[in-house]
């Protein structure tokens, strides 16, 4: 290893004397010269121009200063993230800009806000019982009608011909029944005459028998005359018995025939009444009092049996059909309560039916009013509902506000007892309703919390209320 090089003094030696000597490895190259760690060219050591000299190194440079500042900034940010912001950031705010709510204990009732549509509780459909052509429409959409009021008049020529045919058949059968009864009466009269004649013959023969028997006893008449009379009397009596039996059988047969023909006539009368009633169905009347809606019949239009003509909405009661997010389907059941505000008054409803079919992420439920329905509620009107989910529970409550969107429910500003300042405090919030949060920790009953938006407060930790 070579010995260190000793440089000769410079012309301005006073200035150079104060400069520290650079290390041996740091050399400067003069213009046109070469760096050398040994003797100068030509064997002259440290004399003449072109001789290499050591330059002192600066410890503080602009690059090093910028790097140091960057390190300090990163360290400051890390310290802020690790130990928190410096305390004492205060902001003066106007009291009129703050919305304050007190923490309180009370019933916590989860509910979901839904929108329903008002409908009549009972709707009676109007269908064509008999087909025909609409010849007259007596009402218009939205008219209020009374029970039995005529709504439509239809015409059916085939039905009219059927009524005439039934009437003709009934007349023919009734005439046949009358003729049969006349014949039966005449036959019964003939039989009665025959029996009367036979009774007369028997009486006459009995008298002859007694008279001839006396003569025979006195030998005034031959016995053959008595025997002839007795034979004829026996024959007549037998004829009378047979005739009476035949009369009874004929009367029984006539009764059966009369009953059958009467039944046939009765059936024809019922058929005629049914056909006539069908013809009266061509005049469509309101089955109940209410409001006409959904008319589907125009004058001249042909309607088949069963076609829809319209409907009558009963106005004495209403219901609400609401679409609810499918997320709440397991928690909605018949009997659950809901409240609605209509016309400035609050009404209570109950779930009557739940339809579990999900369409477009929602299912449908039907609710009815627990008491009187709003008087001005109209079909199709929107109703805002607060549907309760489950039974109410005791909980610590904080009113909802704009602060939640700024803090995510992680912290709040709590007012001091004198209300002159509000200090930031971490909290834990749980379930929520459209009106309240459930407080799980960080707040006590009676604490007054700023619930309005914190967007204008920046990073303040304390608010001075003026």
From TrEMBL:
Residues 131-309 form the Multidrug resistance protein MdtA-like barrel-sandwich hybrid domain. It holds the Pfam family BSH_RND. Keywords: Coiled coil, Membrane, Transmembrane, Transmembrane helix. It is found in: Cell envelope. Residues 1-53 are annotated as: Disordered. InterPro entries: MdtA-like_BSH (IPR058625), UPF0194_transport (IPR050465). The keyword Kinase does not apply. Residues 1-11 have a biased composition (Pro residues). The chain crosses the membrane at residues 65-83. SUPFAM superfamilies: HlyD-like secretion proteins (SSF111369). Its main location: other. Residues 34-48 have a biased composition (Gly residues). This is HlyD family efflux transporter periplasmic adaptor subunit. It comes from Rubrivirga litoralis.
